[in-house]
Structures are given as structure tokens and as C-alpha cells.
Amino acid sequence: MSETRESSFERTIIATTAAPAAIGPYSQAVLVRGGRTLYISGQIPLDPTSGALVGEGDVAAQTERVLDNLAGVLAAAGMGFADLVRCGIFLADLKDFATVNELYARRFASAPPARATVEVARLPRDVKIEIDGIAAAP
Q1: What pTM was estimated for this model as a whole?
Q2: Ranges 3-7, 62-66, 133-137: which has the least confidence
């Protein structure tokens, strides 16, 4: 999937052999020139209508809800997943990495954002996952 935009905005995927290659659906770095930047606070698996926790104990269901919440924030800013340049994934248990990675990869047709994934001691409401992001667009 490619996008055509008329502006001074430029998004370039940085890939170098001077650092370890990406081992999943992420880029080593993303260079942004021009445009506007959106900083997205960490999203946890809460239903935006009811505020209820989604998928208690189920990392796959929680991941899908978090990604849907990210999509909602991006859409509110007139952006989409193609505009993400960096994400941070916080997991309560790094054993869930493969499941999260598979679901995350489905949201990016190509040129995924730079990313870090870390295991943390605890997340709000004892959820299994939280994702934050930075997006850039014209």
C-alpha cells in the first residue's frame, strides 16, 4: 500500500548494516522532514464507549483493542497506521511477545515504524499490554 501526498513532508525508512537488522515488524529508524507530529499517550485495552476492560487475561484480545484504540486516536488527528513513525510496546509478560508481534504486524502493510518492546513490572488496571506512539504526516 502506497500513499501519494503533495507537501514538503517526507518519511524515510532508515536501514543500516551498522546496527542490528530489525527482527520483526518494525524499522530501525524513521526520518521525518516537514509535516506535523502527533504524540500518542499509552493506550490500554479499555472499550472507548463503556470504559470497561476488554479481554481480561487474554493478550490477543487486549492487543486488538489497544490497536483499535490507537487507530481511533490516529483517525481523530486525520492520520492512520501508515503515519506512525515510532511505537513503544509495554508487556506485563515478554512470553506474550510472539502473539503481540503477529497481531501488530497485521496493521502495517509495509514500512512499519521504529519500535521498542519491553517487559514491565505492572501496567495500569493490571492489563497485559500498553502501546504508545508517535505519528507524522503532512
Answers
A1: 0.83
A2: 3-7
For residue range 44-58, list pLDDT tens digits in order. Answer: 999 999 989 999 999
Cell reading at 9: 513532508
Q: Which residues of 35-60 are buried (b: 16+ CB within 10 A; e: fewer)?
A: beebebebbbbbeeeeeebbbeeebe
Q: Is 136 helix (H, G, I), strand (E, B) or coil?
A: strand
DSSP conformational letter for 50: T
In terms of Cα–Cα distance, which of 138, 136, 129 is closest to 95?
A: 129
pLDDT confidence tier of residue 8, bands split at 50, 70 and 90: low
- Structural domains in the chain? 10-137 (3.30.1330.40)
Encode pLDDT of 86-106 as tens digits.
Answer: 999 999 999 999 999 999 999
Write the CA distances from 30 to 25, 46, 56, 58, 129, integer angstroms: 13, 29, 34, 31, 24
Three-state DSSP state, 97: helix
Paired sense of beta strands 36-43 and 129-137, if any: antiparallel
